[in-house]
C-alpha cells in the first residue's frame, strides 16, 4: 500500500502517512516549533530566511501555509510530524505551476531529526502523491551548490542534475551558485 492510499484512514488535516511520519496541514500551534527550527543557523544557512526566525513571523507563515491548497497552483507547505511523538520536525514545500503538471519541491528539517531518513521518507511520500495522485509530469529542485546534503537527498530520490547556474542568487551578502535537478514521472520507481 502506498502512502497516498493510506490517506483516507486519517482525519482531513492529515494528507499522507508513512511508516514513521504524518504529513499534514500546518495549524496555529505549529508556529513556535517552526520558529525554533528555522532559527537554527545550520537549518537557515542555505535558506532564504535569516536566523533567528521570530515566532510572530512563524505565526504569519503558518496562517499562509494553512490557507493554501496542495492541488492548486502556487506554494503548499506540508507539515512533517513524527507520528510516534506527535511532534513537528520539518516541512516539505511544493510549488505547482499554473498548468498543474509541473512542480518545484523544497524541504527543511529540524537538525535533531536529520541523518535519520526522515527527509527521504517525507519527500518520497510527497513525490508519490504528486506523480501518482495528482498526475504531475515533472518535479524540479534547486539548491545552493554548497549544500551537498540537499543535493545528495535529491540524487538518492532519483533526481537528475540538469544544470549549474553560476553566481545565480545573491543571498545573505554573497553570490551563490545553484544546482538544478529534475525528476520525471516516468523515472519515479513503481516500488516506492
TrEMBL record:
Coiled-coil positions: none
Pfam family, one: Acetyltransf_3
SUPFAM superfamilies: Acyl-CoA N-acyltransferases (Nat) (SSF55729)
Gene Ontology MF, one: acyltransferase activity, transferring groups other than amino-acyl groups
Keyword list, A-Z: Transferase
Positions of the N-acetyltransferase domain: 21-186
Protein name stated in the entry: Protein N-acetyltransferase, RimJ/RimL family
Source organism of the structure: Actinoplanes derwentensis
Amino acid at each position: 500500500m502506498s502512502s497516498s492510499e493510506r490517506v483516507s484512514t486519517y482525519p482531513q488535516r492529515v494528507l499522507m502517512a508513512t511508516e514513521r511520519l504524518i504529513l499534514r496541514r500546518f495549524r496555529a500551534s505549529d508556529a513556535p516549533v517552526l520558529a525554533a527550527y528555522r532559527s537554527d543557523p545550520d537549518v537557515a544557512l542555505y535558506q532564504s530566511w535569516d536566523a533567528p526566525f521570530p515566532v510572530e513571523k512563524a505565526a504569519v507563515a503558518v496562517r499562509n501555509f494553512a490557507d493554501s491548497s496542495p492541488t492548486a497552483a502556487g506554494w503548499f507547505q506540508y507539515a512533517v510530524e513524527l507520528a510516534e511523538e506527535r511532534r513537528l520536525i520539518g516541512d516539505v514545500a511544493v510549488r505547482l505551476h499554473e498548468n498543474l503538471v509541473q512542480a518545484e519541491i523544497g524541504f527543511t528539517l529540524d537538525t535533531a531529526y536529520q541523518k535519520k531518513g526522515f527527509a527521504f521518507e517525507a519527500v518520497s511520500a510527497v513525490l508519490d502523491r504528486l506523480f501518482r495522485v495528482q498526475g504531475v509530469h515533472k518535479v524540479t529542485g534547486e539548491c545552493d551548490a554548497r549544500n551537498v546534503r540537499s543535493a545528495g537527498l535529491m540524487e538518492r530520490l532519483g533526481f537528475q542534475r540538469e544544470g549549474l547556474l553560476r553566481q545565480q542568487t545573491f543571498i545573505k551578502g554573497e553570490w551563490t551558485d545553484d544546482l538544478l535537478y529534475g525528476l520525471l514521472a516516468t523515472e519515479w520507481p513503481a516500488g516506492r
